[in-house]
Design brief:
- The protein is α/β, with parallel strands linked by helices.
- 32% of the residues lie in helices and 29% in strands.
- It contains 11 helices and 14 strands.
- It has a 6-stranded mixed sheet, sandwiched between helices. Strands 2-1-4-5 form a 4-stranded antiparallel sheet, covered by helices on one side. A 4-stranded antiparallel sheet has the order 12-13-11-14.
- β9 and β10 form a beta hairpin.
- α4 packs antiparallel against α5.
- The longest helix has 17 residues.
- The protein is elongated, with a radius of gyration of 23 Å.
- The two termini are 37 Å apart.
C-alpha cells in the first residue's frame, strides 16, 4: 500500500500555488505532516482524497488514480471540520458511512463507549473536541487502508489525546498508511515513524526526528564579554537558533567542532558545553529553516 505523488501542483487563484511541484511517496506506517498555517497540509489531503481536482502532476494510490473508484474505497479523509447530515446523532453515522465504506459497527460502539460519547445526542451540540472524537471513532471503524487525519489532536484534553494515540498505534498494522497533520509537534513526537515538513506547498525535509536533527548541536555558554549572534557568525558558525537569558547563552548550530574550538580558544568562555536537544525543538528549528529558505 502506498501513495505516489509526482510533480503535483494546485492553485486556488491561478497566481499563488498552494501545492507547488510536489513529489513524495507515502508508505505504510504513521507519518506526521508538519507545517505552519497555510503551508499546504489540508490542500494535500484534499487532493489525495479527490475532494479537490489537481491542476498538474499525478497521484496514484496503490497503482490507481486518486479519482478512481478503486482509490476512493481505500482512503478516508478526516478533515478539520468533517461533514455530517443535518440533525444527525452519533448513532446515525453508522448508516451514513456504512453506505460508502465497509463499517465495523461493533468496533464503533466499543470506541464510542470508550470515549464516553453520547449516541443519542445531536452532533451539532457537541463541543469541537467531542466532534473530533466521534469522527476518530468513525475513522477507526472503517475498513480502509489509508487514513488522512487533518489536525487530529485539535481541541483534545491530554487524557483523550493519549487514548487516541493508543488507537492510532493499534490501527497501524504494518499495511495501513496513516498520515497525521498537527500543530501539536510534541504529541506527534513518540507516535509517528517519520516526519514530513511542508512549507508553501513544498516538502522541505523529511525523516525521523533523529535524522532531521543529526547535524544540529546545541550549546550552553557564558562569556566574560558580550557575545552576540553576529559575533558567533564571525567565527563561521551557522547559527540556527540564538537565545540569551541574563548571562546564559543558548545557541544551536550546524555541527562544526573545529570552529567551536577556535571560538573557545579566542573568547575563553567561562562555560561552553553541549546540551541535549529534543525532538520538539528539532522540528521547530526545521520549520524555522523552511521559512527562512522560503524568504531568501
Amino acid at each position: 500500500m502506498n501513495i505516489n505523488i509526482n510533480h503535483l501542483s494546485k492553485s486556488y487563484d491561478k497566481k499563488n500555488l498552494a501545492i507547488d511541484n510536489l513529489t513524495i511517496k507515502f508508505v505504510p506506517g504513521i507519518t506526521g505532516l508538519v507545517g505552519v498555517n497555510g503551508a499546504g497540509k489540508s490542500t494535500l489531503f484534499r487532493l489525495i482524497s479527490n475532494v479537490l481536482d489537481l491542476d498538474e502532476g499525478e497521484i496514484s494510490i496503490n497503482g490507481f488514480a486518486q479519482n478512481s473508484k478503486e482509490a476512493k474505497e481505500l482512503v478516508y479523509f478526516l478533515s478539520d471540520d468533517p461533514y455530517y447530515p443535518s440533525g444527525a446523532k452519533a448513532k446515525d453515522l453508522v448508516d451514513f458511512y456504512g453506505a460508502f465504506y465497509s463499517f465495523d459497527k461493533e468496533k464503533y460502539y466499543e470506541l464510542v463507549n470508550k470515549f464516553s460519547l453520547p449516541l443519542d445526542k445531536k452532533i451539532s451540540s457537541f463541543s469541537k473536541g467531542m466532534r473530533r472524537q466521534i469522527f476518530i471513532c468513525v475513522a477507526f471503524s472503517l475498513d480502509v487502508k489509508i487514513l488522512l487525519l487533518d489536525e487530529a489532536f485539535d481541541g483534545l484534553d491530554p487524557l483523550v489525546l493519549e487514548m487516541i494515540k493508543e488507537e492510532i498505534i493499534k490501527n497501524s498494522d504494518g499495511e495501513k498508511v496513516i498520515i497525521i497533520s498537527s500543530h501539536n509537534i510534541s504529541a506527534l513526537e513518540k507516535l509517528v515513524d517519520r516526519f514530513v515538513i511542508i512549507y508553501q506547498g513544498h516538502i522541505t525535509s523529511q525523516g525521523t526526528s533523529e535524522s532531521l536533527g543529526e547535524d544540529f548541536v546545541k550549546y550552553q555558554a557564558m562569556f566574560t564579554s558580550d557575545i552576540t549572534e553576529e559575533r558567533l557568525k564571525e567565527y563561521g558558525l551557522k547559527i540556527i537558533s540564538y537565545k540569551k537569558v541574563g548571562s546564559i547563552l543558548n545557541f544551536v548550530i550546524r555541527d562544526d567542532e573545529e570552529k567551536i574550538k577556535v571560538l573557545q580558544e579566542k573568547e575563553k568562555p567561562i562555560l561552553l558545553e553541549q546540551i541535549p536537544i529534543d525532538a520538539d525543538e528539532i522540528l521547530t528549528l526545521q520549520l524555522m529553516l523552511s521559512k527562512k529558505g522560503g524568504e531568501e
